[in-house]
């Protein structure tokens, strides 16, 4: 018995970001913030954002506790979303939700490439929420809400 | 019990005096020979819900195939036979709990509904605003939320007795809360579904009574592993849920002293719970029927009866001895894993073991184990306040049943070593 079979889920990138999330930081100065909860497992993620003068999301920080999947997803999200206008982020989020639910994507959005390592969660229905939790918080912050609705 | 003697033998009851043989017992549980993700199933999540022996499955289908109708209302053979089968389970439950009277057994959907019934009927009907309900820090949400609802609707205060770092009820704090709390009712778990701790039930009940409070035990976990005796512990209310006791879902039990049930107004209204109905006024059926509105869970009760027979055939002594040996083995084996922390160190504990691991979140542990066919639970186990008390967000939990083997615990330990190196 070994865990080779879970490598589709726990790729090296995920283990790396899950263990040492480089963007985990609480922004002291921010324009919007929202939290998301995963009541089933007690995971929590707060996302704070700062807008750039042109209206794009200039800086994103998060503060979270959770499993390797949710931590890695938050970290990769910051990398993929930083510097983009809110509409782009919403479109990216929607592509990302499709990716983690189906394991694949027809989207040509190049920003999605960095998020592909998370596509393995599609095989683990109970873990999809772990991957989407930080995105739910980010989307809520973009909408001016403080709590992400748990779908 | 339903079924003729010949069929029963094939279902596989123990022969009295034959020693506990887990391999034989496992043959009674069809699901245990299933594979999961290509691996042999190692089911270590029985505290959430236990698997069902063939005796339970067959008792339910046998009833549906041979004698089934609504209860308490038909004048025909089928209804009479079904009523007998349903009512005989009340006797079985009464003897399981050593209740003084069968009329003190109320069937509910599960533990949750039983506690809600008490919170509603005893809480609003007997407790007075300003009195307190005392629970503990290690309660399942089902023994917290109904009391909060009562607090908000009826002006009852809710007090919480702390647990120690070892995960035991803090008896001194419990006593002082009772001493000055005007406590009307204590509602406490008989065995924690997170820490495996047994509550010293007789002592806890004696203290409650000394200060004039009544006491309810949540026996959801306890009744699975040890014989419960409501007279020996001097309980006032005792509740449990059938699906953890190898029975089907949809059936639970409330036992309460007759004098308390008599004083309590009904919970739900409708058919079966009345004595007479007119548009001006209805009168209630006698206890326990007053609390069983509508068509009850007939088949599920029959299934529960079969589960109780099954457990009795094996015997609580044999079950407790087997599970104690499993628990000792698991505690010893898991303790040797670097970076693994067992949560709760109660002196008196059973086969429910929560743990955390450095560098690995409970969910990740559960997903990896699942890949090798091992089912454990991960999360807050419906006990968020306890998690907060312990400073944890979640734990992984392995829980044992009468069909669990030492080899399964070894497989768990071996795979946890792998989990550790995976996340290192
Ligand atoms: C200690 C305890 N109390 C109450 C419950 C609730 O049982 P049910 O969901 O069957 O009502 C459980 C199990 O989930 C439990 O372990």
- Write the CATH fold name of the largest domain in chain B: Aspartate Aminotransferase, domain 2
Distance between the termini of chain A: 36 Å
Q: Which residues of chain B form runs of ≥5 with pLDDT under 50?
A: 1-14
Going by CATH, the architecture of the largest domain in chain B would be 3-Layer(aba) Sandwich
Shape of chain B: globular
- How many helix segments of chain B? 16
Largest interface: A-B, 23 and 25 residues
So what's the CATH class of the largest domain in chain B?
A: Alpha Beta
User: Rg of chain B to the nearest angstrom?
Assistant: 22 Å
What about the largest sheet of chain A?
Answer: 3 strands, antiparallel
CATH fold naming of chain A: Sufe protein. Chain: A
| Strands of chain B, count | 17
Label the overall shape of chain A.
globular
Mean pLDDT of chain B, rounded to whole units?
A: 94
Average of the residue pLDDT scores of chain A: 92
Give the helix proportion of chain B (percent range): 40-55%
Q: Taking Cα atoms only, what radius of gyration of chain A do you get, to the nearest Å?
A: 14 Å
Question: What structural class is derived from the secondary structure elements of chain A?
Answer: alpha+beta
Contiguous low-pLDDT stretches of chain A (5 residues minimum) are: none
